[in-house]
Amino acid sequence: MSDSDAPTTYSFPTFHERSAELTAADISRIDIASATRELIRTSFTSTASTEEIESAKELILQAVEILQSSNGGPGSAASESHFSDRSPFYGAMNPLSMPMSMERDDSIGEFGAVVGIATFTEPYEGPPGHVHGGFIAAAFDEVLGMAQSLTGRPGMTGRLTVTYRAPTPLYQPIRYCGWVDRVEGRKIFTKGTAHNGETLCAEVEGLFLSMPAELMDLLRKGRDLSTPPGEALTGVIEKGRKI
Q1: How far apart are CA 121 and CA 42, in angstroms?
Q2: Is residue 149 within 8 Å of 179, Cβ to Cβ?
Q3: Of 99, 110, 157, 232, which one has the fewest beta carbons inside 10 Å?
Q4: CB atoms within 10 A of CB 39
Q5: Which stretches of 55-139 are assigned E, i.e. beta strand?
Q6: Ramachandran angles phi, psi of 166, nearest 5°
Q7: Cα–Cα distance, 41 to 122 (Å, whole number)
Q8: Of 77, 96, 199, 189, the residue nearest 139 (C-alpha)
Q9: pLDDT tens digits for 62-94?
Q10: For 100-117, how does the pLDDT look when each residue is reduced to its tens digit (9 = 90+)?
């Protein structure tokens, strides 16, 4: 393959980009997340008999027991994983994710845009055959969150306003696109769209509030299971009030 034929690679700020190589355990976690994702969908749609469902349940409980038998602390693997692995929308290790595929498009806006492709299945259904509006909004939050990080400022969602234009179908690749509209001090204003082919399904405007790196560190400590949750949360709230 020549240099001109090589696939384009994109770089995101560190919060959205894993810097370390995947380990063998990481790959196994990705595999089990994929299998669990299929289990969620299949158990939701299966017409198996009661006896077959009970048999499957026993196997699932056995698997849970095996995973709980480790000497590691509960949740420690999630605490150590990178956001790009644990994201509920594009994290390959998270069985709740689709997962979405994410790319950067430098041709849009001052900072570039983020394009995410998501294919929703039955567990995400709202109206018959179509995606629940809450999941559409949450996927927007993920795409805009990545887009606003292209400014180089860590930020959190302050407001998200979604306008639904057409029903969003299941089992169709939905193309999300999000970009930064403008920056005013700590405020990062974003916009986005979601399309099914040429059909505009929804559009969004979002406001993100940038914050210093030390506050992000406090948030990380807030999910550290070795820290009393009340103590960690108090520190995060008090720090946020001073910004």
Answers
A1: 10
A2: no
A3: 110
A4: 16
A5: 101-105, 113-119
A6: -155, 150
A7: 7
A8: 96
A9: 999 988 876 655 445 665 677 788 899 999 999
A10: 999 999 999 899 999 999
Before 99, cis peptide (omega within 30)?
A: yes
Rounded to a whole number of angstroms, the distance between the first and last alpha carbons of the chain is: 50
Pick from 113, 117, 111, 213: nearest CA to 156: 213
pLDDT (tens digit, 9 = 90+) per residue, 111-162?
A: 999 999 999 999 999 999 999 999 999 999 999 999 999 998 878 999 999 9
DSSP assignment letter at 130: B
Provide the β-strand partners of residue 190. 180, 206
- Compute the half-sphere exposure of residue 38: CA atoms within 13 Å on the CB side of its CA: 5
The CA distance from 211 to 160, in Å, is: 18
DSSP state letters, 153-192 = --EEEEEEEEEE-S--BTTSEEEEEEEEEEEETTEEEEEE
Burial class (CB in 10 A: 0-12, 13-18, 19+), 23: exposed
Residue 5: Cβ-neighbour burial (10 angstroms; 0-12, 13-18, 19+): exposed
Place 5 in a pLDDT band, splitting at 50, 70 and 90: very low
Tokens of 75: 């949740």
Which sign, positive or negative, has the C-alpha torsion 136, 141, 144, 145?
negative
Chain position carrying tokens 């590691």 = 72
How many angstroms from the chain centroid is the CA of residue 178?
14
User: What element of type H or E holds 133?
Assistant: helix 133-148
State the helix-helix crossing angle for 213-222 and 229-241, rounded to 10 degrees. 160
